[in-house]
User: Fold this.
Amino acid sequence: MAAHMHKTRRAPAPTIKTLAEITGYSIATISKALRESPVVAPVTRDLIFKAAREVGYQANARGMALRTGKSFQAAVLMPVTAARDYEWDGVEYTQILSGVSQALDGTDYRMSVHVIRDAADGAEAARRIVDQGLADGLIFSGILADDPRIDLLVDHHFPFVSMGRCRKDLDYAHVDIDNEWAAHAATARLLAGGHRRIALVNPERRFSYAMDRLDGFARAFREAGIAASADLIVEGDLSTHFGRQSVIDLLQVAEPPTAFVCINESTTLGVLSGLGSLGRQVGVDVDVIAYDDINVSAYFTPPITTFYQPIEVLGRTLGQFLLKRMEGEDPKALRQVFRPTLIERQPDNLGGRLA
Amino acid sequence: MAAHMHKTRRAPAPTIKTLAEITGYSIATISKALRESPVVAPVTRDLIFKAAREVGYQANARGMALRTGKSFQAAVLMPVTAARDYEWDGVEYTQILSGVSQALDGTDYRMSVHVIRDAADGAEAARRIVDQGLADGLIFSGILADDPRIDLLVDHHFPFVSMGRCRKDLDYAHVDIDNEWAAHAATARLLAGGHRRIALVNPERRFSYAMDRLDGFARAFREAGIAASADLIVEGDLSTHFGRQSVIDLLQVAEPPTAFVCINESTTLGVLSGLGSLGRQVGVDVDVIAYDDINVSAYFTPPITTFYQPIEVLGRTLGQFLLKRMEGEDPKALRQVFRPTLIERQPDNLGGRLA
DNA sequence: AAGGAAAATAAAAACGTTTTTATTTTGACA
DNA sequence: TGTCAAAATAAAAACGTTTTTATTTTCCTT
Assistant:
């Protein structure tokens, strides 16, 4: 141990200049060699790579960023509602971020997260990201039927992938869940079980996927030749509170529903809570089919039938698509719609009394 | 409208050079003026600001970053376990990110999120962030009793704020929940209600807060002069599955517990599910007290008593502390331990039959 | 062996800042 | 009015890259 070991001065990180000095080549050659440009001789390339490995060279992201004008950031807009008592909100985002991060692993891109509080906030964030070059690509969800972010980004030729589709015919990369199909399947299942008065607990109508679900719901009735129980459609934020309140409201109408189609875990928990507090038993007095974000419906009492799609897979696809988009790939080639799998945990016909 | 309106060529974003040309000052003066340096005359400063506003000047983050060596990134390590069926995991992180983001709002800092899969991964991520200067500050949670990240960052004088305290006596900024207190309070409450056989559903012992909770649990028994039901302590990942399995295991012992102290929402749901499937009724056969991450226990059937702390507040504090740390403030001044509030929803004495 | 094209490398400029150093302008004082 | 310090501004260098342009080296052809 050296006698005077005052705060070990860390050696400055090696740069291409360091490598130039070590190898005797110019920084231009170093730069080209490191990026495997064909103009530098293979033998010198190898030499330079070796030197780089030896000194532990790491390209300085800031230098690259300035010169290339890129930020090496993949931005994700994460919605968080401001409502005080609505803290379940956005639980699935952990999975999305995890998936995106997986896709980005091993690339030069980092993931930056921009929290947005509503649609307007999201549009503003997107604009800031484009204008200031805060990121090289963007991922976002909560797509509106007519979403200003999609318009903006398409217009600016800015690489992005949306989770969800808007209702305009535009070319853009996206990943989605087949909500029309899922809502149809859930409704058809209940109709087949003998239910006629079916409630749909749905998101607000401005969301594109709310429309998709309405479509699926209507189609199931249409195909069964039965008039849809349109008066049992409720729309709201997807909070637990909303789910609970919906049940309380719906069970007071003249012909109350015998079944519920729920949109996510949070509302489902609210619906179950509401039913419980009114003394109704799931599987006996009413049936509930849900869409499951975080695979937790198995633990509800009783376990209920759900449609399930591992959200992390969507996240990973979002990330992969974004990488390709940032490399200039045609957005037309970057679209995928996932069909969730049905997990049956109940007969969904009031224990056989309906079918 | 111009006749030939081919793809509107966007004017390049104004730089300090643009401002220099407009105002006639040198770029040096522009730079100093914009950062309100006292060496530039107030009248010219105002002039330059006016020009900047007029052309919509926005400092180029990449240029700043290169010159200053800063990244203007505040990094957050977000843990996500790989386990396939454990998707509830990390639900509270949305709230943390939201809080951090709120604190960062209006500053030059952006939030980047690094997903980590375990403790080793986290240590590696921290090292990469320090070595490559990927961020100017770091926030992380899931603190181990002896956490290598804290050692590393303290050693490197790298600004960070941890959510949770390690069990070493070091000077570092942190935010925490008073887990010792909460576990003590929950246990004492159950003891006062007449319970003697109390189960503790706890995280793995390597986590610092697991130790804190063990301490609080033990202290409650000690203060009551009763031998702790140490054989009813279970430790595991905090999945719903673990909660459920714990109940199934614990109810098979010779003297089974009459009450459960749970650590988070996820395990609590599992515990309730397990109790339900064994036909035990909460509030009748057993009592459950939980710690509530996302304020959803009110919707469990029946609602249970919890300790609750809005996690977003912690997130905000983490962000605020990090900003101060990055400005060089003494970490000793940046510590805060929150006591969650008790939300009573049950008598917690088996409906009066114990007290 | 000279000439010239091709290959390899080097030099220089540029990206947008900040900071250090140098120069000019101002204003007080004798 | 000339001198000098202080105030204000300008010039230049630097951060670490990439890219364009220039130079040198290699090697083939005659």
Observations:
- DSSP finds twelve helices and twelve strands in chain A.
- Chain A touches chain B through 54 residues (CB under 8 Å).
